[in-house]
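Protocol step 4 of 6: record predicted structures for both targets in the notebook before any analysis. Target 1:
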Amino acid sequence: MTSLWRHFTWPAWRDHPGRVLLAIVAVMLGVALAFGVHLLNGAALAEFARAARSVNGQPDLVLRAANGPLTDADLADVLNRPEVAAANPVVEGQAVWPGQTGRDGRPLLIRLVGADSLALLASASGARPLAPDLIPQVDDGGGTAAMLAARTLHLNAAARRHLADGQTTLTLRIARPGTTTPLDVEFSVGGRTTAGNEPLAMLDIADAQQVLGRLGALDRIDLQLVDGTDAKTWAASLPPRWRATPPDDEGARLSDLTRAYRINLGLLALMALFTGSFLVYAVLSLATAQRLPQWALVGVLGVSARMRWRLILLEGAAIGVAGTVLGLALGVGLAAGALARLGSDLGLHGASHSSGDLLLGQPLLWPALAYGALGLAAALVAALAPALTVRRIAPALVLKGLGLPAGRTLPAWVGGGLLALGAALALLPPLWGDTPVGAYAAMFCLLIGGLALVPALVRGMTAALARLPAGPLLLLARERSRDQATEARRSLAGVLVALALAVAMTVMIGSFRESLMQWLDHALPADLYVRSSLRGADGLPAPLPPAYLQAVDQLPAVARSAPQRSTRARLAPGAAPVALTARRMDAGNLPLLARWTGRREAGALPVWVNEAGRDQLGLVPGRVLTVELLDGGRTVPLQVMGVWRDYSRQNGALWMALDDYRQASGDEAITELALWLAPGQTPDAARAAVRAAAAQPDDIDTAAAGELRALSLQIFDRSFAITVWLKAVALAVGLFGVIASQSAQALARRREFGLLRHLGLSRGALMKLLLLEASLTGGAGALAGLGLGLGLSAVLVFVVNPQSFHWSMEMHLPAARLAALVGLAFAAAVGASLLAGRRALGQDAVRAVREDS
């Protein structure tokens, strides 16, 4: 094998380095995109988890109340239990830093974390500190007294960026529960903490309870147990008013939330590798066609079919290894470049980790081996068909000029069966959470089934030509297309797959964007939207003052207003709260997908749920449930009356009429206003009037409907920007594959062209013949790619998106873009065939006939 490689393969590679380099680049790009996406996802998750752990620490258990907040009495009870070694009470809130703005141009929000400094210091002296990054480092050496000083904030790096040189005090505006009047509190600037990425301030627990208006209340208690205590058994022994769980893994929670997006993005990157394998196949097929006489000669001289087979596989392995190694290196470079552009904290601003730490701090060996194995496998699979061809040649016949053996044709029922199997797999429910495994398998079956049906499609189009007047060229083109239909599948495989994927992604993204725009019209019916820039302890907008609401209604610029209450509800004791929105029925219609037309339960208030609530929480139309309204503190029966489309969330959310909510909860607070402007009023003038009506204009956050639409579409386009590059790479690789495949076929037909020239056909006539043949096969490939793409897009639109993100949509076909894609694929196939034929026709006709004798 070494001698064959040195004397047979290496000279061919040396004489045509561009083709080999092209195949290596195809594998390299596929591996680099997939590995780079994996590294970026891992870095984002690791940095987010690190920032969360720096604030929350790593206790053995986190104690919360089954309903409502914990109290100081709960803390005393816990500390008296012999199994508890240390306990840190925590209360959290948010405040506005007046005069400072965030990255979005809105007033700067700062997270307040109240903790027991003494408990943190005590745990820091042990082997397992509770939250070491939260312990303040005091610059002036004041020690414990400085940490416990009244009204003192210890700021992290992200917050300190907003301090002026020499600034020792700052004032924060805080929304307190039970009142709509915010409180301005002046604090001293204390030490430093290394916790968190976003602006954060740590203060003593007693101060936090006082300034947040939550005296005696606690959000949670972080616990460390005595060595030898089984946390699970101890947690099960606690009274039912408590709920003790392992610490929330924020990284795992973000991983669950973004799993669908990451999997879909990773599979798109792997599609580039899948398409690249067809280019490797085309390059090796071209090399096989060029060296066919040499293959036959070495076969006559004693090189067995098995050795020929192994040599082609070795060539594919060499391409795969080179492309994989370069792809892994390029993937690291792409990820590092993205991190350098976004910042080492991926846009979170404040992380202390460098790009190298984010990349190299995650497991690399097994992912690199996995993606490397995929790259090598893609190259080896691509080499199988040329290897089989060389193995099956009859050397004596090839030396007589009879060319390659006829390709094997799969029965049409195989392709049809794969298409039917794909349709059946698309109906399977998601596995592993929200991962649509059946849909991905369906897309693969559709691709393979479509490829298997290409010969049948070519023969069908050839049969349709039989009704046309048969001139000599048309007769030759028709007969050749019918006899070489299998070769059409091989030559068009790369561009067909690339076109199908490009069509599928174009239709899916276009459908999603069009559906989003229609949804925004439903979700944003008013001209201007108003809310407080302050946040409550739950992170939701603070209530607007009643006097301000009355003042806005009396403004001449406002024709009418619709109030809204954003709050939360708990569906079961101890369950995580879900979003609840209460607004008036005339404030715009919800984009309903399903309605309950059955019997209305007496005493149950109507509620509508989003698709995530239906799929994740089982809130199907007609179901009656009892929920706890967190702001009203009451329990109320509800009945699901319908399901609405919600593109703003991937978690469950409820909507109910504002009057029903007020009656059930007793909560009269309003958190948002939707305003319709009077005729002739501009959004800017109305915005100024709305802000001027507030006692503190900086506390009012406004946005015009057009701004919210533009921002939503900007976020959408940015989220799918990478798919443009993935489609471009796949299409480029597929088009190069067509060129290489057509070159291989043209070289194999040199003797045929020479014979036709000898029989009297002119060079121009032969070019017309090639044009007819290429139009026939290229048209079949373009039609097959379009049909496959539409089938794949249906799976993406109607299966993958609803199962992955719980977002349904209607299919919209962007006709102009689809026509451009199909026309590009057709023109590339025809142009590649003509280019390859022109080169083959450059051979002398007499010499070609002599080679055939």
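Target 2:
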Amino acid sequence: MLRHAGVRTIFLLVAAIFFALPAARAQIPGLPSLTGTSASSPAKTETQTTAEGASLDDLIRILETEATRNRLIESLKAAAYQPGAQATAAAQTAAPGVDDLVESVPEHLAAYTRSGVEVLQMTAQEALDLARQGLNFLSGARAIDLPRVWQAVQPVTIVALAVFVALAALGFLDRRIGRWLNARANPRAPLKRLLLVCLATLADVASIIVSTGAGHLTALAVYGGPPNLNQALFLNAFVLTELVKIGLSAFAMPHDPALRMTPFSDGQARYWYRRLALVITLLGYTFLFVAPVVQTNSSIAAGNAVRFITVAIAFAAMEGLILANRVRVGRRLQKSYRGGSRTIQARFYLFLGTIWWVLAGAFVFALFALWLSSPRNGFQFMLTASFKSVAAMAIGGLVASVLKKVVTRGVRVSSGTKDRFPLIERRLNSFIPKVLFVIRTLVVLIVVGVILDAWGLLEFDGWLQTEVGQRFTRSLVGALFILVVAFGIYLTVSSWVEYRLNPNYGSVPTARERTLLSLFRNAFTIALGVIVLMLVLSQLGIDIAPLLAGAGVVGLAVGFGAQKLVQDIITGAFIQIENALNEGDVVQLGAVSGVVEKLTIRSVSLRALDGTYYLIPFSSVDQVANMTKDFSNFVADVAVAYREDVEEVKAAMQEAFDEVRASEQGINIIADFEMLGVELLGDYAVTVRARIRTLPGKQWPIGRLYKQSIKSILDRRGIEIPFPQTTVWFGEGKNHNAPPLHLAGLVSANAAIQGGSDGSPAAAKPPLRTPERNPDGTLIPPAGRDQLRHDGEGDADEDGEGRS
């Protein structure tokens, strides 16, 4: 099924090529038309073209064969009926009414049918004319005078032998130079590889020049004078053909893989280079040397026959090469899509991999057909346009490849620069891909413009010279210059802020400096972006005055509609002016406390102790509690039992302070120990308070270390740290005796009081105690249990109150 579809596609492309040949000829000056009229201007006949300035040689070539003479007669006949055709066209352009439109539908269908038939007839006529032209060329082969040609070629053989021997000898030196350059190539340095490729190409060009000089010296030495006409033809053919092959070698680099800039494997590079070089050699030496010699020593028809045979062989070889690599090249083009990519580029290459061989075969066939129909003007035009297109695509692809490798490799800065400016490398690597994307886009546009200019579809050079083209070029260059300068300014200012905030170089920045520099960098970035945007728009020819007026109106509307935003900005500005908080401070804003990580013109970002990130707008901040402003204090509250001596407790607290100050954390203490005295007489403990002044934010580690020290010292001194206790009082009688404790609902207690069930008196039993339990339900052992007396007798204190 695919084969049939491909055959149909080839047929349609060939038909389109034949149909487009007359229009192409009409655009090429001096090119004769095979059908007599062109599609774009039917009134311009071949007779008129000849009369306007065609050379005598063109007229002779037109009248040389019977086919061209017949076409000239047909052109004259067509010109005779041209006025009537113009009247008919004028009548058809009149505005038809409704009835005329209904009646003209069949006429339009008939006209379209006739046009289709005429297209087929023209295509068939073109094919027949091309076949006749080929037979005419081939018929001249009988006029070749081989003995005379051989006699003319004999003096060239010695010169040619000297040239090729010198080229082979210099080939050893070229290979050594190539291996030396190949060993110094670095895949990660595309610019260096490009320089090495240029050096290798210059070495090959030098070998061609030296070999040509050897040919000239051989002619002087053997024949006693400069090269004759045939020898000069050979030397010219040698130079031009070998230079084209050197260009192909520089593109493919079949023998120096490390210098290869194109995505070919070693086998593919050698495969395509050998076959294309063979075709170039065949065409180059034939057209530049063999055919002129045959034409000079035989006839023009004989020279045309040699050219036709060579072109036919080259055409067959190229078509066979395309068909032989149809699947291989198609799979390579579809590689990214088969690998899973579904981008637009991958889909395009998927489609191109399916039809590439059809397009390439049709292009080669069009070249062959145009050479047959007009070997001087048409073929030269198409060949020149093809070479320009290939060169533009090759150079554009090379530039794109180098840019891609630069983006992939990135920019590397020295370690010293990275230490001073930690973010400069990341900024450069984030900006360079955007710049290179713009450059690649410009390269693609330039390549497309050159290709269109080469084929005569767009006068790219002429457009650039017009006022519009010059204004567009100036605007584009100016906008790019503004962007580059703006990025340089941004990079300089940001790097200076980073250097100023870097504690390893220069003076250590304070928290206030860090906050203000960060806010300055953000404000400067926004202001620079707005200014650059306005300048770029102005450079592109856009009037920015309405934009500025509109921005003012929009700003006013935002000010009225977004009052919360305005409140955020104003409150934040006053907070910064009053220096209430800075980056790195530990603050409490409302119910949230944490470290200030970031400050902007409208919000503050806090990081809590558990890692929670809070973003708080300034409009919701009614008070700021900064716990690290200038200095910090640790308040040491030590609770001891009532029986302990307060002075002994103070001495213990001073001893704990001395231990902390002597430790590694002691450098964070900035003042002597400040004893404040007894702070609280609590229900079960006496609280003694002291204070330690530390650096901002160091009160928490100092406090932890001090608590650890005071606990150890109190244990060594035997000073009790009390825990909560409860005193239960059951009252007392007038005789100062506490009444007995009655526990209702306990049968065992009643039995103990009233005696046994047989009426015997009860034996003396120990009083019943209520078991005491911990909060978790476990029993408290007797040793650690307060003695609860049920007989009403308790220990009497100084007041005579019973306590238990």
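Step 5 preliminary note on target 2. Strands lie at 586-589, 592-599, 603-607, 613-617, 625-626, 632-640, 674-681, 686-694, 795-796, 802-803. The domain at 574-626 is CATH 2.30.30.60 (SH3 type barrels.).
Proceed to step 6 after PI sign-off.
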